[in-house]
Amino acid sequence: MSASLRSIALLFLRLGTISFGGPAAHLAMMQDEVVRRREWLSNTEFAELLAVTNLIPGPNSTEMAIHVGRRMAGWPGLIVAGLCFIAPAATIVTALAWMYVSFGRTPDARAMLAGINPVVLAIIVHAGIRVFRSVVRGVTASAILLLAFAMSLLGLNELAILFGCGFAMIAVRTEWTAAAFVPVGFSTSVASTTAAVSLSGLAFFFLKVGSVLFGSGYVLIAFLHADLVERWHWLSDQQLLDAVAVGQMTPGPVFTTATFIGYVLSGWRGALVATTAIFLPAFVFVALTQPLIAWMRQSRQLAAFLDGVVAASLGLMAAVTVRLGAAALTDPWWIAWSLAALTVLVSWNVNSAWLVLAGAVAGLLRTA
Length: 368
Prior knowledge:
Oligomer: single chain
Number of helices: 15
Strand content: under 5%
Largest sheet: none
Structural class: mainly alpha
Shape: globular
Number of domains: 1
Order of helices and strands: HHHHHHHHHHHHHHH
Radius of gyration: 20 Å
Helix content: over 70%
């Protein structure tokens, strides 16, 4: 079955505009549209494409949109679906970044963000809990998660942690020698130097992140914190939290957090460069992997590597949540507010966009 480029464009423009709630919500909306309503794919085909998005780096929901476009309309569909899903969120985030740069230090704006940040932490914790329950199985995966958490707190390089844990899982499951695969050369501690912001530096950094980031889009925060906050000092902890908050306030991919950061650092050019760089690898990976779906699903080593990387990703999420929590939860009121938001998410699984809005209102009321 095939579909017109126009129908693909209209569908993903709409999904990119209304899809609040994070990757899981995006994927649920896509499944409803392309399987149930339009019958472009069967449930089996959809599940097959979803499995592949979990085997490659990048934003899962965006990669699913690109996969569907490729399956329904070939190479033009791949490009149209991906761009149309990304464009609404990137446009909205750029506008919000302009408002943040222009007015973000006014009392009302800062009050809103003060209320949103504890909610963001609760959303990250909730996402980690859900992913942990669904993907971390057995003692080995749990041990890798804890090891990655400890190594991250000690300041080891996040890429070394991810790849080291991935190869460690291969070693355990296939009885290979772990020492032969751990990339020791990457095991460097986080430097504390300051580097000048440049468009080329932004492009390289976000291209790297888009090329290696496994797991939930929330793991992006760990990479941002390690390089942009701790290593290069381009952002403060507060600015990073504000960027993540904007990503939660807007529909579409969580990766448009890069759009916000790019604008804050280098204006609209920075926003364009950061957005292009972080999403470009997703298009490349989908183009390369869709013809290899059957082989990828049968590879024992690749499956083991991915399990190790996912477990390590959760460890990174936990470590960065601890660091950001220290910056955002500055008094008992915000600690209680974050716990209340987490309770609501766990008990009722409400759309995170509503909690973010509630956080903004709470921040305004607290300082009124």
